[in-house]
Amino acid sequence: MAKKPTSEWGQRADAAGLAQNTLARLADVAPSSVGRGLRGEFASGVPGYLQALIVAWELMTAEQRAEWLAQRAPADLS
């Protein structure tokens, strides 16, 4: 079972149904980088780009989220 997030931003992402892997895909970074960022392991705290992606996700409808993810799909799935 996955650990529940403890940071404010991790909790917000979790409450909005935004998984770490999905957030990593949207940010085009490794999931481990997202995890470190959400834990505030960087000197500047939670990176602003992660905060912005979480807020955007919170504001979107399910249809908008699906479209966003479809646009972020890898170009070559072979």
Describe the structure.
It is built from five helices and no strands. The protein has 78 residues and is an all-alpha fold. It has one domain. Helix 2 (20-27) crosses helix 3 (31-38). The longest helix is centred in the C-terminal third of the chain and has 12 residues, at 48-59. The chain is globular, with a radius of gyration of 13 Å. The N and C termini lie far apart (31 Å). This is Transcriptional regulator. It comes from Azospirillum melinis.
> How much helical structure, as a percent, in the residues?
55-70%
Count, helices: 5
Structural class: mainly alpha
> What are the secondary-structure elements, in order, as H or E?
HHHHH
The domain count comes to 1
Low-confidence stretches: none
Q: How big is the Rg?
A: 13 Å
Strand content: under 5%
Strand element count:
0
Shape: globular
Q: Biggest sheet, in brief? A: none
Protein name: Transcriptional regulator
